[in-house]
Amino acid sequence: MRELKLMKGNEALAESAIRAGCDAYFGYPITPQSEVLEYLSREANQRTGMVILQAESEVASINMVYGAAGTGKKVMTSSSSPGISLMQEGISYIACAELPCLLVNVNRGGPGLGTIQPAQGDYFQSVKGGGHGDYKLIVLAPSTVQEMSDFVELSFELAFKYRNPVMILTDGALGQMMEKVELNPQKERKHVELEWATTGRKNGNGRVITSLHLKSEQMEQINIRLQKKYREIEKNEIRYEAVNCDDADYIIVAYGLVARICHKAAELARAKGIKVGVFRPITLFPFPYKELFENVKDKKGILDVEMNAGQMVEDVRLAVEGKVQVEFHGRMGGVVPSPEEILEKLEEKYLGGSK
Amino acid sequence: MNEKKTLDDQHYEKIIAEESICTQDHVVYEPPKSAMYETPMHYCPGCGHGVVHRLLAEVIEEMGIIQDVIGVAPVGCSVLAYNYLNIDMSEAAHGRASAVATGIKRVLPEKLVFSYQGDGDLAAIGTAETLHTCNRGENILIIFINNGIYGMTGGQMAPTTLANMKSTTSPFGRDVATMGSPLKMTDLVAQLPGTYYVTRHSVHKAGNVRKLKKAIVKSFEYQKEKKGTCFIEVVSNCPSNWKMTPVESNKWLEENMLPFYPLGDIKTPNQKEN
Ligand code: SF4
Prior knowledge:
The structure holds two protein chains of two kinds. Chain A is of the alpha/beta class. Chain A has two domains: 3-236, Rossmann fold (3-Layer(aba) Sandwich), CATH 3.40.50; 240-350, 3-Layer(aba) Sandwich (Rossmann fold), CATH 3.40.50.920. Chain A has twelve helices and 15 strands. Chain A has helices at 9-19, 34-48, 58-69, 81-97, 123-127, 145-162, 172-176, 216-236, 257-271, 289-296, 312-320, 339-350; strands at 3-8, 24-27, 51-54, 75-79, 101-107, 138-140, 165-171, 178-183, 208-209, 240-243, 250-253, 276-281, 283-285, 301-306, 326-330. The radius of gyration of chain A is 21 Å and the shape is globular. Chain A starts with a strand and ends in a 5-residue tail after the last helix. The mean pLDDT of chain A is 97. Chain B is built from eleven helices and nine strands. The radius of gyration of chain B is 20 Å and the shape is globular. By secondary structure, chain B is α/β, with parallel strands linked by helices. The chains are: A alpha/beta, B alpha/beta. At the A-B interface, helix 3, helix 4 and strand 9 of A face strand 1, strand 2, helix 3 and helix 5 of B. Strand 9 of chain A pairs parallel with strand 2 of chain B. Bound molecules: iron/sulfur cluster. Iron/sulfur cluster is lined by residues 43-44, 47, 49, 77, 147, 151, 238-241 of chain B.
């Protein structure tokens, strides 16, 4: 039996990091995710000896993560959109040096300083690179506080399995909302010697963590190795949820918080006799292209709903390759769409308006 | 070609021929064997980087800490320091070496961590990281190579470029009214309670090299005792971008750099305790 608690999303995530045996957190306050740093500052060190350090900036935090991750420890940071933008250089270095770590983005409305309200405007930044160069993060998108908690341990597993940074892409509402959550038992923090990690020279020559490869042929080889790894991740790690898709005529595609709202919209639709299912990508990279196509290929249409100007919808279009009609509805700047509004859009796009 | 032999040459040739002094008992200096790779360095002839690398390797070997040391290399001429130092090392983004070192030290507090940074790295783009690392008193050693210029990118003005000194981006000399004054980073960090030992050295003469070596040894000992940040500035040269021969550059260093960046301890443990 897992322990049951009522918690905020941000706190559930922080608690789960402690329980996952995380060794260190480096971060900088920013709304709407400061609870992560606050909770950890209160709880973590005395319970497990986990290192908690409030850095002077997000730039410093991500480079502390780089340093600590290079020793093979379980390391993480969290921030919100503008802070994650500041971290992009460091994330690119981490991806190239192939360091396992957990990054959490509690997405808020942008661009610019924007708003502290929830948004999904960082899909491109998280999934398509963000920083410079060809690299990929594994991106997990929770839609409940339970998943905010569960994905922490999963992220560390994936990060070490592939020596790749993993991002939990969530948003201000999930971070702030309280729900009941079942917590994993406490894992022991233990030091595992990894042969690539810089922990002081052992037998053989000194080990080096770097992303510098001056010769183009060599840099190309590094890229080839990374791309091979990303293909492997695409093969093995796709996660998604398809609810009531089998008999549906229309499929709503949405991730994270919006998917929950879409479930309600689908319920309202079914009550009106419109058969609607919901497809929710859980891994945004790797994106469930084939799985989505299998679920929508014989449907009358797709409505993709996001809290942005239309970002994931590009992947949805790639998945169906023009074989199914794809419509988009988005709210921006921190506005959350309502179930009624989503149903209305679906009816407007496919059924000639609301009945 | 008819080479003229000096009296000295003749003298040494005679000794070598007659007494065979090239035996193990007569060795006065050997390069570090285990903490350094036997490979030519990419540094320009006469550059101070090679000397400081060698000193680090010597100290690491002599203190027997090769398995305990983790170094952090910067972006700059010494970006490839790990090609010469045979120890565990991490390459940092430009300016972030002390943040990377902080990350390493915090999760491996028993290890000995140092960062090796140039003036552009440490005193321009990485100023915030440098100050806050020192202010937190991270138990690391920061080695700061100050040659008053951006070496790797080809001689642009650095935060430590002297007033009126020419560089490719201050071609008429550094005009402090518009370009700011040279930044004495070492004096600045000495003001912070987190630093334990702050000192300024050079490697332009043998005596100075020996002094720097002692400072590195001391810094690692203080680090073992978890005393706080140790900060060593090395006023160095850049013959290539100063457009001088190595000998000229050392002379220029002595006549121009040292009056502004005087050598010696800026903060020592005794001072701190008083
Ligand atoms: S450019 Fe200057 S600092 Fe760089 S290696 Fe050459 S002499 Fe040394």
